[in-house]
C-alpha cells in the first residue's frame, strides 16, 4: 500500500491528538521511528499489515486514513481524549505505559 503525503498528514494529526510521539507510535506498530517518519512524510510505502496496525492504534477508520473521509462517529475518541487531557502529567505517563503494555495483547486478541 503506497503512502501519500495527505495520508501521512492524517497520521501525524491523529498521532498528535493522542499525544503520541512518532517513536511511541512506531514502537506500538512494530516499525522503526525512521520508517514511521518516512510514512508520515509520504516518502515510503507500507504494507497492508502496517496500515491496519496504524488504524487500530490511532482508533481511526481505514477509509479516513486512506481517503480522508471523516468518520461518522468520533464521540468515543473525543471522550477518551477529553479524559486524558484532564490527567496530571504523571498520570498520563502511567496511562501511556499501561496502553503500551496492553496494545500487543489487544492487537493479538482482535486476530
Write the layout of secondary structure elements.
Blueprint: H1 5-17, H2 22-29, H3 33-40, H4 48-58, H5 62-67, H6 75-85, H7 89-110
Helix pairs in contact: 2-3
Description:
- With 111 residues, the protein is mainly α.
- It has one domain: lambda repressor-like DNA-binding domains (434 Repressor (Amino-terminal Domain), Orthogonal Bundle), CATH 1.10.260.
- It contains seven helices and no strands.
- Helix 2 packs across helix 3.
- It is globular and about 35 Å long.
- The model has no long low-confidence stretch (mean pLDDT 86).
Number of helices: 7
Helix and strand content put the structural class at mainly alpha
- The strand count comes to 0
Rg, Cα atoms, Å: 14 Å
Which short descriptors sum up this protein?
mainly alpha, 7 helices, 434 Repressor (Amino-terminal Domain), 111 residues
Short overview:
The protein has 7 helices and no strands. The protein is an all-alpha fold and 111 residues long.
Amino acid at each position: 500500500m503506497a503512502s501519500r503525503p495527505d495520508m501521512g498528514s492524517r497520521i501525524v494529526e491523529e498521532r498528535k491528538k493522542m499525544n503520541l510521539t512518532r517513536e511511541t507510535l512506531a514502537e506500538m506498530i512494530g516499525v522503526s521511528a525512521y520508517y514511521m517518519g518516512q510514512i508520515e512524510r509520504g516518502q515510503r510505502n507500507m504494507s497492508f499489515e502496517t496500515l491496519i496496525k496504524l488504524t487500530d492504534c490511532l482508533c481511526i477508520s481505514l477509509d479516513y486514513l486512506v481517503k480522508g473521509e471523516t468518520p461518522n462517529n468520533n464521540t468515543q475518541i473525543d471522550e477518551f481524549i477529553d479524559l486524558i487531557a484532564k490527567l496530571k502529567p504523571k498520570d498520563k505517563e502511567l496511562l501511556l505505559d499501561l496502553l503500551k503494555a496492553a496494545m500487543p495483547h489487544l492487537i493479538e486478541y482482535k486476530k
